[in-house]
Input
Amino acid sequence: MNSIIQNSESRMKKSIISLETDFNSLRTGRASTALFDKIRVDYYGQTTPLSQVASISVPEARLVVIQPWDKSLLNIIEKALLKSELSINPNNDGKLIRINIPPLTEERRKELVKLAKNTAESSRVAIRNIRRDAIEDIKKLEKQKEISEDQLKLGQDKIQKLTDTYVSVINSILEKKEHEIMEV
Output
């Protein structure tokens, strides 16, 4: 039974990490290198993460500078940025790419908060699915007479406490992200 609980906790932790990764790629009003984590470029026939072919820096609050290690990639990187969902306008000067991150409109902020809430809800559903699977596994053990009824109840309580803990972590991450999106 302990292995079921440990496996469930491990899966719940992975859900939290996935949520944080998704939130890092959500654009806020300030510049961040994490915005470009999902950008891929064609590098000699291989789809490669942008961070592996260029240095990405944030010299100012609303400016990102991308400097490729191979100058021949400038146009490829620029095209990848234009195709991305970031709604940004890269400025290619022949040596590096500058991206001004414009302040978000109120309407766009509200859309991003709604998107963040949907992402958080998907994570909550994933946590609840993990709980359901764990409880089913514990019930199977009890049916096979490997554990007693008391141990079944104890296992269900532990899984529920884990679930409550991770759902509250999701809620606090969401609250922090909402605040970050809405600040001007």
